Each structure stands twice: as structure tokens, then as C-alpha cells.
Amino acid sequence: MHTFTKNYNQPVQVKWVATCQLPTEYGVFLLHGFEEVLTGQEHVALSMGQIDNGQPVLTRLHSECLTGDALFSKRCDCGPQLEAALKAVAQEKRGLVLYLRQEGRGIGLINKIRAYQLQDQGLDTVEANIQLGLPVDARNFNIAHDMLKHLNVQTLDLMTNNPQKIQAFKEMGFNIDKRVSLEVGRSQENQFYLATKAEKLGHLLHIEQK
Q: N or C: which end of the chain has fewer CB within 10 A?
């Protein structure tokens, strides 16, 4: 497994800005807008039902992926994971999706395109970032801390395959009641990518052995 500097425990002050209704094909969510105090970077949370009653909240911490979320790329599983998380919350009629604007595991959209170019030449997602001199994972999950505190959420049923997220929430003082697997969006195009996430980044995925 590849080791890399943890960014999720770096403090980030985030303030709530506004909340509105957001009707979607899955149902009506509340859309909460947040802003990082020092940088102005914007993040959102989508909630449904009563999430501040102290009971475990079905939660997805999702990092922005323009190519997967909006352009339907098959290079990753991000778009299907976001869709599955929203569907799961809607089915429960209660839950939360935190959408953090940390494109490309925090390296940004243009650098992600540069990394994709190297992956087209045969490198995996970890090797591409290293060759570009970029962190393997530059995300800061601590951004979610103030968002959850504002929403009065303390205990999570966390939808994730990434043990780093589980550890991040625990180190921030939140309770993880259980992990909910989110294995969706597997395709021929992203098999190598998913295998790399499992083998080098420790993601909890079922990978067929060749």
C-alpha cells in the first residue's frame, strides 16, 4: 500500500452561508452552502429528513469529480457513487451527502487532466501523480468537521470504501456506527483504476485476481 501525508487532520474553518430546497429526481433535499473562511472555497451538503436527533445518519463524504459527476466519465466510479448515495438517502428518507470541492483527490481539474494523460501512457493513478510531483491524495477531510457541527450530526453510518475517511472522522471526534459499502460503477474502462485504489490506497473493494 502506498503511504502519503495525511491532510485530513489539518484544521479548516468553514462557515455556513445559506440553505435552500433542492428538488431532484430522487426527491427534495435541503442544500446547505458553506465557505472556507480563509480561502473562500465553497462546499455544499445535501440533507434529507431529521438528521439532528442524535441517531446515526447515513452519510456520504464525496469529493468533487467533474469528469465523473457531470461528464459521465467511465475512468472512475465517482459519478455512480454520488448517484447511489443520493438514492440511498432518498430511500431512507433521511441522510446526508457532503460534497467537498476537492477535484482530483485535491490536485485540481487541470492537474487531473495531466495525470490522465500519463495514465493514457500506461501509468496508474498513483504513479501519474508522483511523476507530476503532486501528492497522491491532497484532500483535507477536516473541511467536513464544521459542516457536520453546524448540522448537529455526531454519529455516522458512513457510505465509503476508503478506510482513510473512517479514520479521519474518528480523529475529528465523530462516531462511526457502521460502514456502508458503496461498490458501484465498475466497468471495463475503470478496472485498472479500481485495482490500483485497492492495492495502493487500501480501498475496501472486491477485485478479481487474474
A: C
Please tell me the pTM assigned to this model.
0.91
- Provide the Cα torsion 153, 157, 161, 165; round to 10°: 30
d(CA 96, CA 76): 22
φ and ψ at residue 95, rounded to 5 degrees = 160, -170
How would residue 5 be classed by pLDDT, with cut points 50, 70 and 90? very low
**Residues 6+ positions from 113 with CB-CB distance below 8 Å:** none
| Confidence bin at 190 (pLDDT 50/70/90) | confident
| Cα–Cα distance, 28 to 7 (Å, whole number) | 33
Q: Could you give the strand order of the β-sheet that contains 27-36, starting from the edge strand earlier in sequence? A: 14-24, 27-36, 42-48, 95-100, 57-63, 155-159, 175-180
At which residue does the C-alpha cell 507530476 appear? 132
Mean pLDDT over 45-63 rounds to 97
For 59-87, the pLDDT digits (tens) are: 999 999 999 999 999 999 999 999 999 99
Which residue is it, cell 472556507? 36
